[in-house]
Amino acid sequence: WGDKYQWSLAFQWIDITGLRGGDYKVCVVVDAQDWFAELSQSNNYQWSDVRIPSSGSTVGVLRNGTSACAP
């Protein structure tokens, strides 16, 4: 199951003000404290490699994955 949120919903963004341009990995982990009984925890991770340009405001997503976040 899952929830789909529109981009305009409050707090569905990350403030990158002052962050230098470059390539970054954004990682999301759910139920990190293992509070919920699950048959599998293999879908508790999502990551995206993103590129923030030195100037301008367009952030590009380079690739996505669903494995544990690693550098």
User: Which structural class matches the secondary elements?
Assistant: mainly beta
Helix tally equals: 0
Overall average residue pLDDT = 82
User: What is the helix/strand order?
Assistant: EEE
List low-pLDDT spans: none
Oligomer: single chain
Taken from the alpha-carbon principal axes, the silhouette is globular
> Gap between N and C termini, in Å?
28 Å
Entry summary:
With 71 residues, the protein is mainly β. The chain has no helices and three strands.
Keywords summarizing the entry:
single chain, 3 strands, 3-stranded antiparallel beta sheet, 71 residues, mainly beta
Describe what you observe in this structure:
The two termini are 28 Å apart. A three-stranded antiparallel β-sheet has the order 1-2-3, with no helix packed on it. It is built from no helices and three strands. Strand 2 (45-52) and strand 3 form a beta hairpin. With 71 residues, it is mainly beta.
Give the topology.
Layout (H helix, E strand, L loop, with lengths): L21 E8 L15 E8 L7 E6 L6
Antiparallel strand pairs: 1-2, 2-3
